[in-house]
Structure formats: C-alpha cells, structure tokens
Amino acid sequence: MLVSLDVRDLLLIDRLSLDFDPGLNVLTGETGAGKSILLDALGFVLGWRGRADLVRAGAAQGEVTAVFALPPGHPAAEVLAEAGIAGDFDAGEELILRRVTTPDGRKTGWINDRRVSGEVMRSLSDRLVELHGQHDDRGLLDPKGHRGLLDAFLGRADLRAAARAGWTRLSAARRALAEAGAKVEALKAEEEFLRHAVGELDKIDPEPGEEAQLDARRREMQGAQRIREDVSRAYQAISPDGAEGAMSDAIRWLEGAADRAGGRLEAPLAALDRAMIELAEAQAGVETALEALSFDPAVLESTEERLFAIRALARKHGVLADDLGAYAQGLRLKLSNLEGGEADLATLAAAVTTAQSDYAAAAAALTAARTEAAARLDAAMAAELAPLKMERAQFRTVIEPGDAGPEGSDQVSFTVATNPGAPPGALNRIASGGELSRFLLALKVCLARDGEAQVMIFDEIDRGVGGATADAVGRRLEKLAATAQVLVVTHSPQVAARGARHWRVSKSVSGATGAEITTSRVEPLDAGDRVDELARMLSGESVTEAARAAARALIDG
Fold it and tell me: Terminal CA-to-CA distance of the chain, rounded, Å?
C-alpha cells in the first residue's frame, strides 16, 4: 500500500504532502489543473523513465519521497534482498523511496536511506505499482503478457514450477549432450594425428633424462676420437719397448757393477725400483684410459640417431624432451576419451529423451490447466462486462501451440468481438478507447486476489464513457479496491463518488504581471467539499442545488 507521497519543487508543485488510505482513492480537477503531475512525481520516485525537465522553475532541485507498507511475503522483498537492503517488512517496517533531481537532469535515489541506482528502483516499482490507462500496452495490449495474466488467474504455481524444473533439466541434458558431442567431434577430427603421434612416441619410448645422457655420451665419444692418438703415443713411450725397457737395462747394468761400487749404487738402484713400480702404475692407468677412449663407430652413429630422433619429436610437439613421456600419456588419454565418449553419447542421448518426456508431461499438464482456466476467465469476463454495458461483447482466451520454454509450450492471446457476428480480433485493433478501458478494468477485477495485488493506478480509464456506464466503471473500481489499494485520476463524477478518499487538484497563478508563478495544489475534500466537487463535475462552473442533490445521490447510491 502507498502510505504517503511528499513532493518538493517538482514541475508546478512547490510543497505537497498526501496521505493515502486503503481502498479507492480518487483525484479530480479541471482539465489542465495538473492531475498528471502527481503521476509524474510518483513515476519519478519509482525510477520510471520520463521527462527530464522536472525541477520547478527557480528551484535548486526537485525531490519526491514515497512511503509504502508491505504485507507479509510481498514480492518486493525479493528485489530488496537482492539489492542488499535489509528490513523487517513483515513486522510492519515501512519502505521509504526518495529521489532527487537537479535542473541539469542528474538524478539520485535512495531506498531506506541506502543509495541505489535507477535500475533497482525500476525493478522494485514493478513489484509495487501498476499503472493503467486507456492505452495501456504493458499487459492487456501486449500479447507477450497475456500468458502471464492467464497464469495469474489460474494460480497453480506448482504446475508452473514443475514446467520450469522440467525445462531446466531438459536444457541441462541437452547442453551436456551437445558439449560431449562437440568434444567427441573435436577428438575425431584429430584422431588420425593422435594415433600417428602415439605410434611415433611409443616406437622411441623416450625416458626422462635420456636426452642429456645421450648427449653426454655422444660428446664423450667425439672427444675420445680426438685425444686417443696422443694417449696411445704416451702408452708406447712407457711400454716395455720404451721407457720400461730402458729402465730395465739400466737396472741390469747397475746390478752388475754394484759389487764393485762399494755401495755407491744402492740408492740409485732403490730409486729405479721405485720408478719401475710408478711406471707400472702409469702404464695401467694409461691402458685403462685407452680402453675407455676406445669406441665402436657404429655405437656413436646409433647414439646420434636416437638423440636426434628424440629432439626432433620434442620440436614437433612443442615440448621439452624430458616431457615427451607425459605428453604421450596425454595423447593416449585423449584416445581413451574418444572411445569412452562415443559410449557416453548414447547415455546422454537417453537422458535427453527422458528429460524431454518429463518436460512434455509437465507442459501438457500446464496446458490442460490453462485451457480450463481460460474457460473460467472467459466466463468471469462475460459476467464483469455485462454491468459495464458490454453484454454483447465477447472476450476469448486463445491457447495455441508455441515455442517450448520454461513457462510451458503455450502461446496465449486475448481476442474480442465487440459486435454480434463480427469476427474476433486483437484488442488493440477491435476495441475503441472506452471499450478498451472497460476490458482492462474487467480483467483486473477478474485477476484480483487478496494480498496479491499491487498498488493500482488508473489514469482516466473512464474517458469516453458516461452515465450508467461510468457508474458501472466506478462500481468495478470500488470492487477492485476491496482487494487492493486503487488510485484513480478521473473526470467522471460517477467514478469519483465511489472513492473512499477524495482529493481535488487545482491550479493558481500568483505574482506581478510578467513574473507570474503557476502552482498546482492538491487538497483533501471533506464531506461538504466533496459534494461541491461532484456537483461541479456534473454541472460545470455554476453549481446549483440540483447539482448538489445529484452529487449526494451519487455518493449514497
């Protein structure tokens, strides 16, 4: 419920504070008095997009504050929670919306003193307020909204939830199948490469660290080829045919002369003996080195061939030589996934079939319920249209197969025939402005449910009708206001007479000539003022006692 509206320096309003009541609230006034300004102010604070020049001439800024009271479980609470705005609204805490605009068009909004974007305010307004006029195109005239209106009449949130859940499962199953199929196709596209690459890698079967070992062995054999000749010459120099033979001859000669040398040769002989031992060790070491430096040219060739093959594979696949084994394992895994993926596709396809069947059943149940509800809605509309002097009009809810989706597979449209024998057609092509307003009002009455309705605003929905028809419109609005708060801007005294609270909008001009200031005022009417206002609406500027009597009769009727 809209509790209050406070407007400061907006358009023709300097200061205005209104307190609203439950039920039917009516605003009347002469044409041009500024009744639409109140709707502009309310639309502004709700974040609706509208005119930019809202600030009253000469003011620094315009400001509007709207206070709402939410019943327990109101859907606006979801928007507030998503925006991170806390509040115990079920316990009666008020929802306060405030928005400010400057002459240059900059706008700032707050919800319960928390600054928010215009988008958040617009999302919230969709849960708080419905605005309806003669040419409402947000629900009744837009076929896209007809299914939602029928569902609102149907209720049965369980059936819609089942269809949404079924669609979610079907969509997930289809995505899983498509993703798995795409992966299998991608693997199939490289299957030939995978098998060839795995064959190459398996043939060589490189091991981590092998490339470094082969490279070191190759360098060793290449180096041995260059130094073995010098080592061989050295070995010849210290062999028995070289230094060893010469030293043996020297020892033999000195031993033959030792007895005659008086001990002078003992030390040289001992040194030569030691030298022979060292020489033998040197021979053994050089011989070992020669053996180590000996290699088969075929071994060098095979070593180089394997080394070059490993390096070529590493370059080909863009990995390090030591990572070839892990890379090969990855390719084998892809091949395994290809073989397993083809088997999984059958399982996923079966899951899609099952989900499709489940969704079709849920959608069919929803279609059946909608069909039954459509018949009830058509009957209810006929009952509501009769008092609105449209007893010959026919309202039909047409349900046709449509694209499947989370809301089922039905395409819903409202058609009307306003004259007997005339073919039915879309509302916006068949119904006139006055007829359309009555269709809209009848539909809102049929859809009204206690505790579910938003604040409803009807902007001159009675235009083009009068007399008994206007009286019927007023009574329908009064009936609708029994389940929701209704605000009506009207020129019809029959409608205004049904209001639980009545305001009059007027316009005045003040100031000196050339510097006049135009201001709109809104004043609540007491019982006497209300009679005078209705009398004015009935008879014009000259209010007579007969007009007052007629006004009292409307109020008492």
Answer: 27
Is 227 in contact with 293 (CB distance < 8 Å)? Answer: yes
Residue 330 CA to chain centroid, in angstroms? 36
For residue 131, the 8-state DSSP code is E
Q: What is the per-residue pLDDT across 270-327, written as a single tens digit (0 to 9) for each?
A: 888 888 888 888 888 887 877 777 666 787 788 888 888 888 888 888 888 888 878 8
Cβ-count burial 95-104 (b if 16+ within 10 Å, e if not): bbbbbbbebe
* Sign of the dihedral through C-alpha 75, 80, 81, 87: negative
Name, in order, each residue with C-beta under 8 angstroms of 151's C-beta and a sequence gap of 6 or more. 160, 370, 407
pLDDT digits 0-9 by tens, 148-166: 889 988 988 899 999 999 9
Select from 412, 340, 418 the least CA-distant residue to 377: 412
Instruction: Give the number of C-alpha atoms closer than 13 A to the C-alpha of residue 504, restricted to the C-beta side.
Output: 19
Cβ pair 417, 429 in contact under 8 A:
no
Name the least confident of 60-74, 364-378, 419-433: 419-433
Gap between the Cα atoms of 176 and 254, Å rounded: 101
322 φ/ψ angles, rounded to the nearest 5 degrees: -70, -15
Contact at 8 Å (CB) between 448 and 483?
yes
